[in-house]
Amino acid sequence: MATPSVHSSCSFLANKYLISFCVFVCVNILSSLDKGFALSTHHTDVQLSSLLPASTCSSSTRGLDKKKASLKVVHRHGPCSKKSKPNQYKTTTPTHTQILQQDQARVDSIHARKGDNLRQTDTSIPAKSGSVVGSGNYIVTVGLGSPAKQLSLIFDTGSDLTWTQCRPCVKSCYKQKEPIFDPSLSKSYTNISCNSPVCSLLTSATGNTPGCSSGTSTCIYGIQYGDNSFSVGYFSKERLTLTSTDYFDGFLFGCGQNNQGLFGGSAGLLGLGRNKISLVEQSAQKYSRFFSYCLPSTSSATGYLSFGKGGGPSNAVKFTPLSTVSEGGSFYGLDVVGINVGGRRVSIPASVFSSSGTIIDSGTVITRLPATAYSALRDAFKQGMKSYPQAEKLSILDTCYDLSGSSTVSYPKIAFAFSGGLTLDLDATGIFYVASASQVCLAFAGNSDDSDIAIFGNVQQKRLQVVYDVAGGKVGFAPAGCP
Ligand SMILES: *[C@@H]1O[C@H](CO)[C@@H](O)[C@H](O)[C@H]1NC(C)=O
Q1: Can you give the pLDDT of all 483 residues of the chain as single tens digits?
Q2: What architecture does CATH give domain 58-306?
Q3: For ligand 1, atom 3: residue with the closest CA
Q4: Ligand 1 centroid vs 162 CA: distance in angstroms?
Q5: What letter does residue 301 receive in the DSSP assignment?
Q6: Could you tell me if 353 and 325 are in contact, meaning their C-beta atoms sit under 8 angstroms apart?
Q7: 156 is an active site residue
Q8: pTM (2 decimals)?
């Protein structure tokens, strides 16, 4: 090793020239040492137990800013999700394989949407499917009607129409945890007529031309999802209450009379996409198209969904520009420029991300990357996890470890670089998908086709404060926004 001899010669040399020469050598040697150090990946430690959900809910008020309209966010399957009366409704929690399969169905339907708008004008055949509800979803509770009835809705940044199941359930309603909304018990409910211009907004928001009920001329919406879930019903106006002080009269929503699918006991969907009928657009006067959320790390913790700037985002929030994508108008596009593993940029040609494009989606569980980018990420991650025994793959997740022998896991940090100079460190809970201590998987998957759009999913968003400043054309992130 050269270092000790250089050091000793440094301390023994008194001659000025030699000292400056020595400084030159020392600095060079130190900087090359530094480079050598950077070549080995940096590791971060996490307690394995912190990646596992607890059996009881620990509710948090962190991020529930009084200056903003804030709702509590809970995972659909977990102890923080509202319990129903015994035997009234039994939630069957899906297996990890089912969750990941449903997630793939959502991703497939997003990929199938590419160019749907074009095809639609060409042939006037409506787009077959919108999004898939998926399974790894988060719910919030809102009030509907006067007096307001509480309803748990899946919030979805990848779709626009807000709907809930409605009495009298003319055709069919699935089981939900709360009583089904009954418009006849509300003073503020009104149907929308087929002649109303708002009725025609449904075409772009749902991908289906609205129907019209014979006789009463009530506007009828229909939205179907790639996994054969659907909701059909009356397009209506009603008072939507978000908090004790914030409500919206004449909020456009779907009053579902024929509903089927994997909505896991929730009463429907809250659409937060970019289309005109999304909640973001319908509340634009009050909240200026500004909202933020934090998805909790496990199903036993709570996060938040907030509307409006309130005191404005904290200094910790760093922004990247919003972009538009060809997969339809609902999605929020981001511009990924690279991925770091253990502090080092993984070698991925810049064109890989620029040609696929990327969206951020609250309803997709696992982040999807172009195949080329995924294999580069996986190989770098595997290098850094060499000391752990590998475990069997789990559905779409091909890189899993048996961590049952370790209470602390030392892993290479993963960071996403976005345009505008934003480098975002993912939380540990945003890197691992934990089936059990003996099967902990890298929570990323590759798209089969490099040209398919990349998706920044909800596992990777865990614990991050995610800020949508739609009017300002940017999305921001800050670490550790919720437990
Ligand atoms: C809304 O329209 C449906 C279908 O025509 C009708 O059955 C229902 O009574 C209407 N509700 C109200 C409040 O007008």
Answers
A1: 333 333 333 333 334 333 343 333 333 433 333 333 444 568 899 998 888 877 788 877 766 666 678 899 988 777 877 654 444 444 567 788 988 988 888 888 888 876 544 333 322 222 233 344 555 578 899 999 999 999 999 989 988 999 999 999 999 999 998 999 999 999 999 999 999 999 999 998 998 999 999 899 999 999 987 667 889 999 999 999 999 999 999 999 999 999 998 777 889 999 999 999 999 999 999 999 999 999 998 888 899 999 999 877 788 999 999 998 876 678 999 999 999 999 999 999 989 999 999 999 998 999 999 999 999 999 999 999 999 999 999 999 999 999 999 999 999 999 999 999 999 999 999 999 999 999 999 999 999 999 999 999 999 999 999 999 999 999 999 998 888
A2: Beta Barrel (2.40)
A3: 218
A4: 19
A5: B
A6: no
A7: yes
A8: 0.85
* Beta-sheet strands, E only, within 267-396: 268-271, 290-294, 303-307, 318-321, 332-334, 336-341, 344-345, 358-360, 367-369, 390-391
Locate the domains of the chain by residue range: 58-306, 316-478
Ligand 1 binding site (Cβ under 6 Å of any ligand atom): 183, 189, 191, 213, 216, 218, 234
How far is Cα 63 from Cα 303, in angstroms, rounded to an integer? Answer: 8
Both tokens assigned to 387:
């000391």
Same fold, 58-306 and 316-478: yes
Active-site choice (116, 160, 227, 361)? 361
Nearest atom in ligand 1 to the alpha carbon of residue 255 is 1
Q: How far is the CA of 191 from the centre of ligand 1 (A)?
A: 6
| Minimum CA distance residue for ligand 1 atom 11 | 191
CATH superfamily assigned to domain 316-478: Acid Proteases (2.40.70.10)
Atom 6 of ligand 1, residue of closest alpha carbon: 216
